[in-house]
Amino acid sequence: MKITRQKHAKKHVGFYKYNFQVREPFQVLLDGTFCQAALRNKIQIREQLPGYLGGATQLCTTRCVLKELESLGKELYGAKLIAQRFQVRHCSHFKDPVSGSACLLSMIQDGNPHHYFIATQDQDLAKKVKKKPGVPLLFIIQNTIVLDKPSPKSLAFVQAVQANQLVPEHQKQSLKQLKEKEGLGKEEKEKRKRKRVGGPNPLSCLKKKKKVQETKQPPAAKKKRKRKRSRAKPQPVQQCTEA
């Protein structure tokens, strides 16, 4: 079951990475209900969550969540201690705190620009989060952390983008940054510059060199003197005279 659960989590995280540019370290916003459930089920959030999501995480909350936990008294004292260990992200309710659920919803407005994960046990908050595309949702079931599958809103958004063949602005910026990081932009500029500058074809230069080498005449070889053999002249045959 654990391996299957991690496979599903890896698949869902890959969906958000590819379509909504979610990157490590994953920004996880937790509310008081999630901290209380983790305490009750003896879940070590800081140790277990990175392994489950397959990457580094930053656990964070807001001032409104901490204020809400303080107002609830001793019943959620343990959850407040857990939430106080996390980073506190600035919200727009510094002077007039609101409920934790309302604060977390405000943090994912305008297309969730900071790519937050929302970790909550609040069913009403979970329903509202699912209505916003590109917001991963975490909750606890049977003593385990679960990453919910992409919501219908997220799937519909991706299908609309693919049907219209449109590239969202955040994807254009990320592609540009990736190209600059890998040095692809510089290579493209250099290629364009090389195309503008006219020059001789290197292949034609090689052929010319070969022709020059072929036209070169080899140095004249020294003539070897032929040694004449002296042949012995035949001696005249003497005739014998009879007496």
TrEMBL record:
Lineage, opening ranks: Eukaryota, Metazoa, Chordata, Craniata, Vertebrata
The family line of this record is: Belongs to the UTP23/FCF1 family. UTP23 subfamily.
Instruction: Please note every region of biased composition (Basic residues).
Output: 221-232
Q: Which InterPro entries match?
A: Fcf1/UTP23 (IPR006984), PIN-like_dom_sf (IPR029060), UTP23_sensor (IPR057776)
Where is region (Disordered) located? 170-243
Keyword annotations of the record: Nucleus, Ribosome biogenesis, rRNA processing
> Which compartments is it annotated to reside in?
Nucleus, Nucleolus
Q: Does the keyword rRNA processing apply?
A: yes
Q: Name one GO cellular component term.
A: small-subunit processome
Extract one GO BP annotation from the record. rRNA processing
Q: Where is the composition biased (Basic and acidic residues)?
A: 170-190
Q: Which Pfam families match?
A: Fcf1, UTP23_sensor
Q: What is this protein called?
A: rRNA-processing protein UTP23 homolog
Domain named UTP23 sensor motif region is located at 191-210
Q: What does this protein do?
A: Involved in rRNA-processing and ribosome biogenesis.
